Amino acid sequence: MNVEISRLSNGLIVVTDPMAQLESAAIGVWVNSGARNESRTQMGISHMLEHMAFKGTRRRSARDIAEEIEAVGGFLNAYTSREQTAFHARTLKSDVPLALDILADILTEPTFEPDELERERQVVLQEIGQAKDTPDDIIFDYLQMVAYPDQPMGWPILGEEETVSRFARKDLIDYMATNYRAGSMVMIASGAVVHDAMLRLAEDKFAAYRAGEQPAAQPARFIGGEMHVGGDLEQAHVAYAFPGVSNLDADFYTAQVYVTALGGGMSSRLFQEAREKRGLCYTIYAFSHSAKDDGIVGVYTGTGEAEAAQIGAVIAGEMASLAETATVEEVERAKAQLKSSFLMGLERPSSRAELIAGHIFNYDRVLSVEEMTARLEAVDCAAVRRFGEQVMTSTVPALATVGPAGRLERYGNFAGRFGSRPTMRAAE
Amino acid sequence: MNVEISRLSNGLIVVTDPMAQLESAAIGVWVNSGARNESRTQMGISHMLEHMAFKGTRRRSARDIAEEIEAVGGFLNAYTSREQTAFHARTLKSDVPLALDILADILTEPTFEPDELERERQVVLQEIGQAKDTPDDIIFDYLQMVAYPDQPMGWPILGEEETVSRFARKDLIDYMATNYRAGSMVMIASGAVVHDAMLRLAEDKFAAYRAGEQPAAQPARFIGGEMHVGGDLEQAHVAYAFPGVSNLDADFYTAQVYVTALGGGMSSRLFQEAREKRGLCYTIYAFSHSAKDDGIVGVYTGTGEAEAAQIGAVIAGEMASLAETATVEEVERAKAQLKSSFLMGLERPSSRAELIAGHIFNYDRVLSVEEMTARLEAVDCAAVRRFGEQVMTSTVPALATVGPAGRLERYGNFAGRFGSRPTMRAAE
């Protein structure tokens, strides 16, 4: 990556990441604000604002926005996460200025027209319904709530029916004025783009954007516990989480290697034990989710009602065993997998832009490919075992289930398998 | 695309699609056999075979297969569709020979060991459970069953609990001997690859593969009707289908443009009417699915229990209106969207390999990018209207619902909105 970085006088950062051979580009504006920047009554407002940005500006109706970008074969999209909101486009290189004009328009002059708000509220309520009908997705909202109860870090990104039903135009305007500040925003273009041209466009569109930064979010604190949601489902969907690493943690890559060895591919311990050897599930995987100041590692699986009886012991057993017996071979294999999926991701402009956004918000700079791969390469077997032992010392994991999970090992039993060092467990 | 094509003496086709600038490749073997090549008692066996191929060969255990490919950071995967089964890998260019060695191994010498079959059967039963817990996915199985009842074209790809529970080792061997024939297989490599080297590898691995072609599948015949599946869900998931186009149909691209204008993006008629104007849903889209001899066009949406009352009339209304009033502007917009997503897809080696497989099986050659874009460009507003009118003449659409769809317009009412030419409807 040969990125060039500039900063407008109001603080907005402009990053250009040219990719030779491409005829298209991914371009977007990332705002360093998401669900965890909301108060309790604002729950879901970041996401509602993301929707409403597309519903009309002083210069364009919602239909104009859709028609203009699609007339040139472009794609306009947006997403809200816990820490960020992104507005981005994918176009042929000749249409980058148009895409940026639309992005700037929806970010600088959205009208949040009350009639449109009423209609979009219904759309978001439908989106919440759709999420609830997707158990292997909604379970991560429940897991987050249990890991971070009564904290913005635990809010569901879509909000709740109750909060979404109450947002008024003024709430959106206030939230935007507080959180959408040039010093907390970055414009990124990856692909067939040139920095000077991008910088001129950024000056033109964003130089007048309100300066300053958004207020810091409340620090996250992992608490843990359990949450069970019923439902007439075929499978028991089960997710566990343990304290993990922040984006800034020295063990960031150790955690990645750890979860890959635990449950990251066909050769991982959980895939081999739970699926290949015992046939308990079709999907099982481990994950590491990091935020700026905290993170979780955990495991998700969808298993049968009867099979659920075994799965807790299998997961805890493989976690304990990995902490004690991780081999050089499996650690190197996990690193090779992570490295190649990282390098293949760099072939896609949208993945690159997203990677860059994370770097800017977390490190205030863009890490080089060499630096990232060197940090990954530096993880060794001892580090993975040490990290695994640290995870095993958790006393209060988070557990969420959806569906017929009545036969799952009780939370207290499962938690009792943790909280001590491996040598002590072995002596029991 | 600068593809080179060779054919081994047993009939197996080898296609190389070099992409300059890439350091990795997508390589795979596509077999021209899938769910529609199954008898009723074989329902799901194509997919079971796809799973069992990974469960061990004469030279490698299941664990060896997983570890060898992941040790070099490669990814091995497979999928089964109604017409094809694909085994493919993504690796750095230096590991292409290893990937091909493994692919050849699992295709030429799988052992289908009975103990492994028992375990994998449980995994597939879990996969069926997972599919049933994903209403916006399983609904397409139900829709297919209604469109093509009592025909292999309507079988669910995963099979049913009953059939999957009965497969024995001999069933897999018989199915493979019948359907996995060199004359019905193609090996494709896209990315950092060279034809001569690929051809030598193919000769080495596949020259002895059984010659011949698999028996032709039973022709598909669209019948239509309705199917309703309950479930304790938030949303009513609704899918309609109408007779569409085969891959060989002169209107193949017309159908693509039609469904894009109807429900392919934010500016499409259904998105504007059902979501933007009425707030009835979060997700709504139109699709065109084509097989070699037949196809369907249709619409899917997830809507609220109350909102479901309106959705049938909205969908039929937009279909009728598009057939009568499609504009040059919206047709050109749909073409621009299709063209740019097609061109962006060409940036990914795995998309290219899949595209090439479809061309070989459907056209016996690889269409050039110019030919495909020219066929797309040739679609005009008159063609879209004509195609839309033709869809409106369907007398027996297919309807599938999952969840609380009790207030949805009755099937007979909905079907009554079709079956006549637009001018006749206008006169009613």
Summary tags:
homodimer; 428 residues; alpha+beta; Cytochrome Bc1 Complex, Chain A, domain 1; 2 domains; six-stranded mixed β-sheet; five-stranded mixed β-sheet; 17 helices; 46% helix; 18% strand; globular
Question: Could you outline the blueprint of secondary structure elements for this entry?
Answer:
The structure is a homodimer of 428-residue chains.
Chain A: E1 4-7, E2 13-18, E3 24-31, H1 45-53, H2 62-71, E4 75-80, E5 85-92, H3 96-108, H4 114-132, H5 135-147, H6 161-164, H7 169-179, E6 185-191, H8 195-206, E7 225-229, E8 235-243, H9 252-263, H10 269-277, E9 281-290, E10 295-304, H11 308-325, H12 328-345, H13 349-363, H14 369-377, H15 381-392, E11 398-402, H16 411-416, H17 422-427
Helix pairs in contact in A: 1-7, 3-8, 9-12, 9-15, 10-11, 11-15
CATH architecture of the largest domain in chain A: 2-Layer Sandwich
Mean pLDDT score of chain A:
96
Number of helices of chain A: 17
Share in helix of chain A = 40-55%
Structural class of chain A: alpha+beta
The first-level CATH class of the largest domain in chain A is given as: Alpha Beta
What count of domains describes the coordinates of chain A?
2
What is the CATH T-level topology of the largest domain in chain A? Cytochrome Bc1 Complex, Chain A, domain 1
